[in-house]
Amino acid sequence: MQDAVTFDPRERHAAPAASATPDAPETSDARAKREFNKLHKRLRRQVGNAIIDYGMIHEGDRVMVCLSGGKDSYTLLEILRSLQRNAPVDFSLVAVNLDQKQPGFPEHVLPEYLEGTGVEYHILERDTYSVVKEKTPEGKTTCALCSRLRRGSLYGFAEEIGATKIALGHHREDILETLFLNMFFGGSLKAMPPKLLSDDGRNMVIRPLAYCREADIAEFARQMAFPIIPCNLCGSQPNLQRQLVKEMLAEWEAKHPGRLESMFKAVTNVAPSQLADRELFDFAGLEEKQARMQASRIDIRQES
Ligand code: SF4
After folding, report:
1. Among 65, 90, 96, 167, which is least packed, fewest CB within 10 Å?
2. Domain residues of the chain, as ranges?
3. 121, 95 contact by CB (below 8 A)
């Protein structure tokens, strides 16, 4: 089931494998298997490319994969395991789940799943749920504080276990949604980077699914029958604005297929001189630049 080499730039433009189709008609089982293999290979290729493009994983890295029990983090762990087997660099994986003590959290699900994978894992127990409930006024959304506490716990734990990278399961749509949320409500043009150094310089965060489509991940998770843990156990309302942006993007994509891919490309292809950020581009120095350019043109004319 594995294709031969990954993390290998040669695989980047690899042609899809030809389907073995002699004259016999393909059974529906065979077709489903072929489609699944294509999906698996696509995810492997996209993750491998993101890892190469952003220098996410190096020889000897100990990569802590944050496993929430959702489709994205299961897929992330599975694809990284698959790449690890053929990667030209040697790195280790350690899965970590943060049990936030939400009522009804099925504590047995992740340990049972992880035992079956053979991956080193830790279940970190922190009752952030009580803290969030206590500190958040009634009727206010709890997600911001909850995420901050979760991040703090996971970052601290990564240091404790000597993880050199923290891998998160955000995908292409998460990145685009964040871009629009920041534009609509934050007045800034920023998204979620594929690789990030934490503000205090202690942790390196990577997002190997950055190039992957959410629909592919959802289909992969469905076919792999991952034991998904619902994300609404805390009883909080999902972030309404993110939901609206998600719907907006889905509608655009439905009306204009390829728009999300183009928008994601735009995030990787920024032209600071065509925006208006004075920190990023020296607009005040344009006259000086013009004078230099004109002087060099005069020099060239005099020489000829
Ligand atoms: S939905 Fe619940 S668990 Fe998820 S971030 Fe919000 S408060 Fe935390």
Report:
1. 90
2. 32-295
3. yes
Phi, psi of 117 (to 5 degrees): -90, -25
Backbone angles phi and psi of 51, in degrees to 5:
-65, -40
Residue whose CA is closest, atom 5 of ligand 1? 143
**Residue 129 CB contacts under 8 Å (≥ 6 apart), including other chains:** 100, 101, 102, 103, 146, 234
The per-residue b/e assignment along 109-148, b for 16 or more CB within 10 angstroms, e otherwise, is ebeebbeeeebebbebebebbeebbeebeeeeebbebbee
Q: What ligand 1 atom has the least distance to the C-alpha of 234?
A: 2
pLDDT of amino acid 304: 62
Superfamily of domain 32-295: HUPs (3.40.50.620)
CA of 165 to the centre of ligand 1 (A): 24
In the prediction, which pLDDT does 1 show?
Answer: 34
- Cα gap 35→28, rounded to integer Å: 10
Place of tokens 């020296």: 282
**Which mutation among 147, 151, 243 tests ligand 1's pocket best, with the greatest number of atoms within 8 A of CB?**
147
Q: Is residue 3 within 8 Å of residue 44, measured between CB atoms?
A: yes
**Among 3-12, 65-74, 85-94, 189-198, the least confident range:** 3-12
Count of C-beta atoms within a 10 Å radius of residue 165: 21
Cα-based distances in Å from 217 to 36, 65, 133, 169, 246: 12, 16, 32, 10, 16
